[in-house]
Design a protein that fits this description.
The protein is of the alpha/beta class and about 425 residues long. The chain contains 16 helices and 14 strands. Strands 3-2-4-7-1-8-14-13-9-12-11-10 form a 12-stranded mixed beta sheet, with helices on both faces. Strands 5-6 form a two-stranded antiparallel ribbon. Strand 10 and strand 11 form a beta hairpin. About 55% of the residues are buried.
Amino acid sequence: MYFHHSFMMATTNIGCQRAFIVGVGMTKFEKPKSKHWDYPDMARQAGQDALTDAGIAYEAVQAVVASYCYGEPTSGQRAVYELGLTGVPVFNVNNNCSSGSSALMLARRLVQSGIEDCVLALGFEKMEGGLSERYHDRISPVDRHMQHMVDLGADPGVIQPTMNKMTSDVIKLFAYAAREYMNLHPQLTVNDLARIANKNRVQGENNPKASFQKAPDVNSIATKAMLCYPITFGMSAATADGSAAAVVCSERFLKKHGLETKAVEILSQHMVTDLPSSFKSSFRDLCGYTMAKQAAQRCFEETHLSPQDVQVFEVHDCFSCNELFMYEALQCAPEGCGLDLLNNSTWRSNTQGGKLLYLGNKWVFNPSGGLESKGHPIGATGLGQCAELVWQLRGEAGKRQVEGARIGMQHNFGIGGAAVVTMYKKYEVAAKL
């Protein structure tokens, strides 16, 4: 009877604990094969930076969730052993481009459960170049998605002779989603998509950890290297090598270690996987639009907040058209009005001398430069977004700083599929909710 009572007490407390990020770290994201390093080197740097930021030793970490896509089983163990050999559980996560946010979500849930007080989420990737699939003797996990894309009318061929099929299919998926949007809203032009990419590249000029730190002009982005209409190379996130990490802990842990000034609370976090709408009539739904919309709505409902309460967003701009879709999915603009939000925008300088575009004169999207500037190391991307929002909410983003940032929102998407939306708030003000 005593055991049963204790078990009931434990289960009723699951999900009740708040979870906080108290340390983040991130390597520079590098063009694949441009630097002589391997994934343990990347993970060591990002992981140690996160621990140093939190002011704790690795021995204080009670579990690790590692995210990567291009690697052998237990690569997470090999990576984290660079930080120490403490025998803690290490869980490996692979959720395509949303792997980093999936790792963060699992780390948060371990802390919320009360089983662990401090968990390290660690993402890394050593890319082979472009996107690729290694196993060809079994059904591809995105086979249903890519076949449905063709069923909806996409050309089944490879868009460029030198490009592998996986890279080609992903570009096509978002290109056809953009065409669908342009057919419904013919006021949107290629030049408008180039403006979004240019905005991210200009903001990325102030990010020393970004792969690209020089912004091409709008005309160059719109006219050079068309991959698949309306997507050009300049509107795309290039793959990259790199790592990012976050230390997630309970309120008890942060108070014990005096980390209140470092702490950023994960207010809400939801993942939505493919829905029936993913395989119906819309290319946009096939690449995650409704998934993101539902995940965002759940965050707003759980926190009793709205987009009006958010100041800064990091969204998954694998292609600039997807950032446009997210203006609407995250409820900053009504359906079909994302371009209006872009048109009603103002460049402002902050006190650090940086320049940021305020969409609708309210919100800054991707002050980090987004994936289009930073690059896209698949397993690290979501944690890189997380690191940026933590720096923003602490006021530590330098020339990228969104002044007055109190609440941040993140969107990370992986085909196959999973959309993860996360809301953050600085600890001092989070307690007032």
